[in-house]
Amino acid sequence: MPCWCRAKKCALILTMSKQNIAKLDEEIMASQEFQRQNMAAKLNWLRAGVLGANDGIVSTAGLVMGVAGATTDSGAILIAGVAGLVAGSISMAGGEYTSVSAQKDSEKAALDKERQELADNPELELRELAWFYEQKGLSLELATKVAAELTEKDALKAHAEAELGIDSEQHVSPSQAALSSFVAFAGGSLLPLLAVTGPWVAYRIPVTVAAVIASLAVTGYVGAKIGGAKSGKAIIRNVIVSVATMGITYAIGTFVGSIVPGAAV
Fold first, then answer.
1. Using CA atoms, how far apart are residues 206 and 202, in angstroms rounded to an integer?
2. Which of 32, 45, 147, 227 makes an SS bond possible with 129, Cβ 3.0 to 4.6 Å?
3. What is the reported pLDDT for 27?
4. pLDDT tens track for 216-231
């Protein structure tokens, strides 16, 4: 957009009445783009839950299909599936807790350092903040004014958002992330486990494959909708990964079961 056009639009906004500005603000907040961004920010935990359920479905489906390829013993398949469910859920929760804790500690350390720098050399920090806005395209005068106003309101928050890309007032919760991952993985694992150990022994393989494909189609659709993306590609990716996982593990299980004495019971 030409500079004169941008300047004309800015001048137009500045001459608007408060009523017109308020009306435009209402339209912006009601727009689909604003609602999607606002919803995505609030539902990050749901996205993580969908991904955890996805992992639970694929991992457990691969495990039980591998065992089912080696043996027809429903008890052995059930034991392997339950063990995979418990181990996977704990592993996911522990990994998520460790990862999020490290992120939280890093954020707090960065904020402590920034807080100290603001106390030691506020003039340099003000210039640094203005420099960040200059890099985004603002003039020196406007960038300095923006930096000064933000510093006066909340200097630490302004620097945290501009320099570090974090919110100084909100931190991720390791325990909440761990619990969400545990529940999501366990919930996802239940579907292939129930499908492969159901009363339909003669049809356990096709039933499990169909159940896994259907469930991953749902998680792919939900995950795509949460992120505001098209659902078709997400569903196709999920289905391809699940079918490949089950096919490979079943083939390996069948091979191992054929060469291990007493495995194919």
1. 9
2. 147
3. 59
4. 888 888 877 776 778 8
DSSP state of 173: -
Pair of tokens at residue 61: 């489906």
Q: What's the pLDDT at 65?
A: 92
pLDDT reading at 103 higher than 90:
no
Q: Amino acid identity of 169?
A: E
Report the candidate in 171, 219, 211 with the shortest Cα–Cα distance to residue 46. 219
How many Cα neighbours within 13 Å face the side chain of 190? 5
DSSP label at residue 164: I
Distances (CA, A) of 204 to 61, 114, 196, 264, 265: 12, 59, 5, 16, 16
pLDDT (0 to 100) of residue 3:
47
Could you give the CA distance from residue 26 to residue 20 in angstroms, rounded to a whole number?
10
Instruction: Using alpha carbons, select from 176, 150, 192, 160 the residue that is nearest to residue 53.
Output: 192
String of b and e for 192-216 (b: at least 16 CB within 10 Å)? bbebbbeeeeeebbebbbebbbebb
